[in-house]
Amino acid sequence: ENSTPVAELRGAALAARLAEVRADYDRFRARDLKLDMTRGKPAPEQVALADAMLTLPGNGDVFSESGEDARNYGNLQGFAETRALFAPLLGVPPEQVAVGENSSLGVMHDCVVWAMLKGVPGSSRPWSKEEAPAFLCPVPGYDRHFAILEEYGIRAIPVPLTGRGPDMEAVEALVADPSVKGMWCVPQYSNPSGETYAPEVVRRLAAMRTGAPDFRLFWDNAYAVHDLRDAPERVANILDACTAAGNPDRAFIFASTSKVTLAGAGLSFFAASPANTAWYLARAGKRTIGPDKLNQLRHIRFLRDEAGIRAHMVRHRALIAPKFDAVDAALRARLDGTGVAHWTAPAGGYFISLDATPGTARRVVTLAKEAGLALTPAGATWPGGQDPEDSNLRLAPTFPSLEDVRAASEGIAICILLAALERRAAEPGAQD
Ligand code: PMP
Fold it and tell me: Residue 157: in which H helix or E strand, if any?
């Protein structure tokens, strides 16, 4: 019922529909809810899955397999067994993994800063000495990636995502410019579009001619094991692709256990070619005497092996897949057939990306806020917070309870529909 495309409504029918949806909105607002779908945080039940870690490694269990004392300084690169445990997920040999602290964003930040101040292997000068260094930014993308660029005065050039990775025609044209030094990539279950780069896209990223000889892919595989469906998607191995294409140093790979174990107390990883790993460790050795190795032991004892990681991720999936389904069901119930929005059904990751009627995303967020529902600011998925279409919204359903996700999604659907109807009503001829 009531699923006439909004674009076809006019006159009295439009006025009636608008009044009806306004009443829905008022009723929703009167419920006086406090809901938050802003950030991709694991729910309390998810972090509790790792509560056994809080008593690990336990009294007396402080030595690595080779007898290093986890309580003391040292081992900049991380224990061999930590690197062996996570190397398969990163797709590199353990010797090419460096274990960081609790945040991969911090590792990415450091790599950008070091590249700016010192350059990377193959640089003839630091990136900051270039006239106007730039990064390609697939959109919609991760706001914290864009914020790092903004912080250091690096230009952000948006490139469209296609559903199978970035538009490679556009990328190949843009990287011919030598001032383009890097590119953000979330290659699997991308934030927020959920897409996984197709094998052909990975191959072209690895093989494309870049104007800058020291160009780097910032390959942020944050969702490497974060499946929501039975048929998992796996991105092709970027390091192998780069090596095969004769560009062995092109990729910096990042990942973490933030959304495996504990978001605030996980392990982060840098992985790359031997030359890049040596470069990373030389810089890292100036900022720390060594990482938190007790946390490494904690992870090794808790997760044990690859099968342990998989089993743990299945428990996450059981908690969050129903929330993704609830968002989809609520949006469908109110929006199917209206033509006012389309959204993703991701096979993994932490987000649903929704495109509302162009020109209404900001209005949707305002309407939601007034009804007690916090959404990620419109535009956040674009560099500088500027979505030229004012249409993309990032929905993050993991943190709230299932019940709250249901309520919030109904509210979002109402706000999207109301904003689209308001806009339709303001169009020339719609009142006739
Ligand atoms: N990269 C992406 C794509 C993310 O979505 C997130 C978390 N929202 C991060 C990195 C942050 O990772 P960490 O906790 O390891 O800093």
Answer: strand 155-160
Task: Judge if the beta carbon of residue 193 lies within 6 A of ligand 1.
Answer: no
Q: Evaluate: CB of 87 within 6 angstroms of ligand 1.
A: no
What pLDDT score does 4 carry? 86
pLDDT classification of 39: cutoffs 50, 70, 90: confident
What are the structural domains of the chain? Answer: 6-46+310-425 (3.90.1150.10), 64-303 (3.40.640.10)
Query: What pTM was estimated for this model as a whole?
Result: 0.97
Q: Is the CB of 356 under 6 A from ligand 1?
A: no
The residue to mutate among 37, 38, 90, 104, having the most atoms of ligand 1 within 8 angstroms of its beta carbon, is 104
Q: Is the ipTM of this complex over 0.90?
A: yes
Give me the DSSP letters along 343-368: E---SBSS-EEEEESTT-HHHHHHHH
Q: Which among 351, 48, 405, 305 has a CA at the least distance from the CA of 190?
A: 351
pLDDT tier for residue 2 given thresholds of 50, 70 and 90: low
Q: Which tokens go with 247?
A: 């560009």
Mean pLDDT along residues 50-66: 95
